[in-house]
Write a structure and sequence with these properties.
The chain is mainly beta. The chain contains one helix and 32 strands. The strands form eight sheets. Strands 1-24-23-22-21 form a five-stranded antiparallel beta sheet, with no helix packed on it. Strands 16, 17, 18, 19 and 20 form a five-stranded antiparallel beta sheet that branches. The protein is globular, with a radius of gyration of 21 Å.
């Protein structure tokens, strides 16, 4: 049985806050009035100021998203602030690390010189057995290469999920480390042409979307069945996506409303009843990307990176790196430490956020730290996931402006110093 959160009092619609960047606030009940009137007045004034400051940014962003939607094939995800995009690599191979488990095993995709993506698994190796660190190609099904493939999630048992282009479809897959083979997962409907898996938890539940409907697969069942988490167009007419699932079966994702603004959601999968239970979490302009077992949710509340601690009823607008104007939190671990990147007109810069009781940034105790790039400070970098040991995976440019990105691993020593490791590309 999925543990359902109780006693959560969460505001829906536009989130309200009373301080600036980096502030922490309780998420209270709508019924609270009386003594809070003065606070509400201050909130209203600050909300108007913030709205005016954001209008120009939102207009340009919405126009960009709308133009990309018009050029996107049916079923493909809309562009957002969280997309990992970069310049073409001009024929040089590139790679991107998208997920990491607690054994330090990384999965992602490798772009070959001819521009085709291949799903990979990188293992740190075992010194005791003489096996060194290595990267292997997972982009095969039935022993033969199909089209492009991407590995986007891995659990501690080594199950890997992602998607692969098959004739006439983009299909979700699971890779089994015991059988060492790729198995295609069923869509929600036989008419669906695009269905992708993004994450898998320790209980063997994989989540993703099928023709832009959030779905779940129980990998322990035979045959494996694709079940909907939301009805088609239930909260977002332009479609929704489930991006992360924790051990308790709690799932976060988001979709686009009619005005193209994102709308985040939170639900829990009830295995006994075979259906999703809504946790009443539909927040406008909010993109949740990751969730840990304590229901701390990392994401993006334009233009800020956000960590929402649901059980503590606190929403943290995380601080930005110097000389940046927006940020996205893409991963969160049990600590909790959040990871992601900040950007402006220049390259994106990978970073980590962590709680520091000695820190006081706009009355917040959350600190931000930049993570190094492979090619130096002028190179772009993106942190995309973090495990419970604090190992961070993502990608970085190898030289300024080259457009060549390599999957990389950041680790912090006992003194708090970060190092970066180039995971390379497929041979």
């Amino acid at each position: 049985m999925v543990e359902k959160e109780t006693g959560m009092q969460m505001t829906t619609g536009m989130v309200r806050w009373s301080r600036g960047v980096g502030c922490s606030m309780p998420v209270g009940s709508r019924r609270a009035r009386g003594s809070r009137c003065a606070v509400v007045s201050v909130v209203a004034v600050l909300a108007v100021v913030l709205f005016l400051a954001m209008v120009s940014m939102r207009v340009s962003e919405s126009a960009e998203v709308q133009s990309r939607l018009a050029a996107t094939p049916a079923g493909a995800k809309a562009a957002s602030a969280g997309d990992e995009s970069s310049k073409p690599s001009d024929g040089a191979p590139s790679s991107c690390g998208r997920a990491i488990n607690n054994h330090g095993v990384v999965v992602g995709d490798n772009e070959t010189p001819d521009g085709v993506q291949r799903a990979f698994l990188w293992s740190p190796g075992d010194p005791n057995s003489g096996v060194g660190a290595h990267m292997e190609d997972l982009g095969k099904a039935d022993g033969s290469h199909l089209g492009a493939s991407v590995a986007s999630g891995i659990n501690d048992s080594g199950l890997v999920v992602g998607w692969v282009d098959t004739p006439g479809q983009r299909s979700a897959f699971v890779w089994d480390p015991a059988r060492r083979d790729m198995r295609l997962l069923p869509p929600l409907s036989h008419d669906d042409l695009v269905f992708e898996a993004y994450a898998v938890n320790e209980q063997g539940f994989a989540i993703g979307d099928s023709d832009m409907v959030p779905v779940i697969w129980d990998l322990g069942r035979e045959p494996i069945v694709c079940e909907p988490l939301l009805a088609r167009g239930e909260i977002a007419p332009h479609g929704s996506h489930a991006y992360a699932i924790n051990r308790r079966g709690q799932i976060v994702g988001w979709g686009h409303r009619l005005n193209l603004d994102p709308l985040g959601f939170l639900c829990a999968w009830n295995r006994e009843e075979g259906k999703a239970e809504s946790l009443s979490f539909d927040v406008a302009n909010w993109e949740p990307w990751a969730v840990n077992d304590e229901l701390d949710i990392a994401g993006h509340f334009y233009p800020y990176p956000v960590l929402w601690q649901v059980r503590k009823r606190q929403l943290h607008l995380l601080p930005l790196l110097d000389a940046t104007s927006w940020g996205v939190a893409k991963g969160v671990n049990a600590q909790p430490m959040a990871v992601g990147y900040c950007g402006s007109e220049g390259p994106r810069r990978a970073c980590a956020w962590y709680f520091d009781p000695d820190m006081n940034h706009y009355l917040s105790h959350w600190a931000v730290q930049a993570l190094a790039a492979l090619g130096g400070p002028e190179c772009g970098s993106e942190a995309l996931a973090v495990n419970d040991k604090g190992q961070v995976v993502g990608r970085s440019e190898t030289a300024p402006g080259s457009g060549v990105w390599h999957a990389c691993l950041w680790e912090r020593d006992q003194e708090g110093k970060w190092s970066i490791r180039d995971l390379g590309t497929l041979p």
